[in-house]
Structure formats: structure tokens, C-alpha cells
Amino acid sequence: MSLAIVYSRAQVGVEAPCVTVEAHLANGLPALTLVGLPETAVKESKDRVRSAILNSGLDFPARRITLNLAPADLPKDGGRFDLAIALGILAASGQLPAPALVHVECLGELALSGAIKPVQGVLPAALAARSAGRALVVPLANAEEACLASGLTVIAAEHLLQVVAHFAGRGAIEPYAASGLLHVSQPYPDLSDVQGQLSAKRALLVAAAGSHNVLFTGPPGTGKTLLASRLPGLLPPLNEQEALEVAAIQSVASHVPLSCWPKRPFRQPHHSASGPALVGGGSKPQPGEITLAHHGVLFLDELPEFDRKVLEVLREPLESGFIVIARARDRMRFPARFQLVAAMNPCPCGYLGEPTGRCRCTPEQIQRYRNKLSGPLLDRIDLHLTVARETTALNPPLASGDTTANAAALVAKARERQLQRQGCANAFLDLPGVRTQCGLSEVDNTWLETACERMTLSLRAAHRLLKVARTLADLEQVECIERKHLAEALQYRPVSG
Description:
Elements: E1 3-9, E2 18-26, E3 31-35, H1 40-43, H2 45-55, E4 64-70, H3 82-92, E5 104-106, E6 109-110, E7 116-117, H4 122-132, E8 135-139, H5 143-146, E9 154-157, H6 160-168, H7 198-210, E10 214-217, H8 224-234, H9 240-253, E11 266-267, H10 275-279, E12 280-281, E13 286-287, H11 289-292, E14 297-300, H12 308-312, H13 315-320, E15 322-326, E16 331-335, E17 339-344, H14 363-370, H15 375-379, E18 383-386, H16 404-422, H17 431-437, H18 442-454, H19 459-475, H20 483-491
Parallel strand pairs: 3-4, 5-8, 8-9, 10-17, 10-18, 11-14, 14-17
Antiparallel strand pairs: 1-2, 2-4, 6-7, 12-13, 15-16
Helix pairs in contact: 2-3, 7-8, 7-16, 7-19, 19-20
């Protein structure tokens, strides 16, 4: 047969669209033509595939070979199509039965010796192959990652000859067996490590229970970073769908080892990070920090030191839960449902308000420092808390109730109530959801309206205040929002939103 078809998968953001590799052999002078919008690395696959086939002891047909990567308008890059191209040529030349390749998809880069090298972004391709009802042939080094897509038949090989023998019926490769999603045994940092700071721990508990954003303000050394690093341990464990989403992002970015994927991400970019580093971008758009923090925590320390233009790009993802990166040829959408924790000093020197009088900042310097943060951004942060300096005892007694395990149990109960009632955390309620789930009595509603007017809160801030109050009620396992919940929620708002 002079025509063969092999299926593979491209990588476009965190998605893996299907690519059909068509190999056609015709009479004429020996030549190999590759079409279908291939980029440089794909064009170079012609030489890699030829050497891999010859060095594996197979015949490279001395005919006019045309390879088409369809769809033609989808850009293809990387060496992930090498294996599919090689199998297509071998099937078109009669060295492999073409029908054996109908129900499989192939990923892998070929070395000149015929060895199959690992590639990035295997998990999104595995999930797409499972949806298409096909098996997946991958390099052995990517087998564990592919097996995270439970129910998928994974064929793992180290060399081209193994794959050829498998499809030719000379030596079947047993489907790779893995245990599914890994269970991480590494414990999270414990909340009991934070000395004192009862009000900050309370705010952290509320933030975890309702998935609210939080801003800690205080002098250096008061435990702001320590508090932020304890938040992932308070959050409920990822369910299978969330874990797969996180794993797919990490598969594309390749920033962490496989064993860390089921943990909730905790990202802490430096304040010198650029806009593309934070939200994603580049000539070939890649996930940024907000996408790498999907279903986890994004911690921005020294918040005013970030470039204001960089911080402003966070406003839409904080509301929508995704980021769209537009380029001349296409638009890519990356998930970004993260929980923001920010920390800042009260003034440029950091010691404003301390009784020792160490601060020497002028009012103009303080105002200029705080003006680095825009009102719309601060409006999207639900909990604003001042973290004061604690005693300097090096070995303080531990409070038995201030442990991650105890706090996580309270968070789990509150989240369970929210999921049963509305299907999402309180922070993600839309406007109709706020009206339905955060109803108040007429007296409390009037009281809240008066308080919001006095504090000059915006409507967005008022709605977020109601969501925090709903979370406080859920922590107490009560159905209705009470006046005390509203009063505590008001304490977490700045005087002007």
C-alpha cells in the first residue's frame, strides 16, 4: 500500500489537537517532502527519521515520499511527530500493516539510533486520546505521565524496533500498568509553626474555607510569608479532575517532577517578574505563573514592588478564572483559577506604626508607596489584614488548636456545605448566586448598606463582603448570615475600596 495514515497530537497551550500524519509513496526520483505548516524542528525530522529507520535495520524506501501533517493551518513544532512519521513511512512501504495503526496515536522524538526520546505535554495528549477512544504509543520515560489518564491503553517503548515488532505481530508490547493518580506523602508545612498571630490565622482559615483572596500588611519579620506558605495545607485535597488539570499544565510547562503534581501548587514569583512571566506569553505562548498556580495559591510578596502594569493584568483573571493570550495568528486560553495571597509593608521602610518610632518615612513617601497599588486591584482582594509584631520568644508553647490538621478539618466541612448548596466555593459565586445564597434580613440589610456608605465601599466590595460573611456562617455550620458575620467581614475591608 502506498498510502498510510497515523494519528498524533500537537501541543497548543494546554490543549492537544489531533494531527493526522499521511504518508504517500510515488514513483520518481527519491525525495521527501513535508507539508502541513511544519516549523523548523518538524522539518528537521526528515533527517532524524531517515537515520533512525536505517540504523534500526529497516528499509528506507528510495521513492518520492510526501508527508502531510493535517490540518494544514495548525502550526506544528517540536520532535513529537517523529515516531508517527516513521511508522507512516514504514506502513506506506509495506513493512508494517497499515490497519494496525488505525486505533492508536503516537508521540515520540527519534534519536538517530532509533531510540525514542521523551517529549513534553504528554498528559493533555493522553486525555485527548482517551476521549477519542484510541490507544497511545509513548516513550517509556513518558509512560507514568500518560497513565495518569485512567482507562487509557498506554504502549511504552524505548526503541523504534520495539514498536515495529509490536504492530507487525512479532513481539507484542504489554500495555503499561500504573497505579493511576499518585498520592503525595510529603506533608505540608504546619500552621503551628507560626508564633501567635491569632487574627492572621483566623483570616487564613476564612480564606481557605471560601477560596478568598487575602492581603497581609505588616513590618518585616512578622510572619507574612510563613502564613502564606501554610495556606495550601488548609485547602481540601484536589479531586481527580482538578489533579488532572494541574498535571496537564505542569506537563506542558515541565517545571516540577511527576511526584509533585497532585499537590496544590504554590507559586511565589519574584517582584521583578514581567507581565508575560506572570500571565503567560511569548512568541509561542506558554503558561505563566497564574496558570501554574491553577487550583492552588499564588503568593506575591512585596506587592508594591511589582510593576503596576504587571499587577493590573491580574484583574481579569481574578474575576474570570482564565487568561486569553492573543497573537497575530491565534488566541490561546489558559486556565487561571488561583487563590491570591499578597503581602506588603505599611511604608517604604516597613516600620510605620511601630511604637519604637523607627519609621522616618514622610507622608508623601507613604502615599506614593501605597499608590503603586490601584483601587480596582485592591477591590478584588476580599480580606485585608494588618499583621503586627509578636514577642520574640524563640520557643513559644504551641497552641493545640492552631495546627494544620485541625484547621483543615474546619475548612473541609465548610467547603462541603458550599459544594452541596451551590456547587462551588463562595468566592466564585456570581451575582445571581450572591443574591440567592447571601440573603439578609431587612434589618441587617439596612445596617450593611449604612456601613458600606460610611466606608465608601464599591458594589463589588459589598458583594465580596457578603461572600466572606457567607463563609463565616459556613464555618459555624449555620444556614443564615448573622450580624456578627457581617461585622467580622467588615473588619477585613479597608476604609475605602
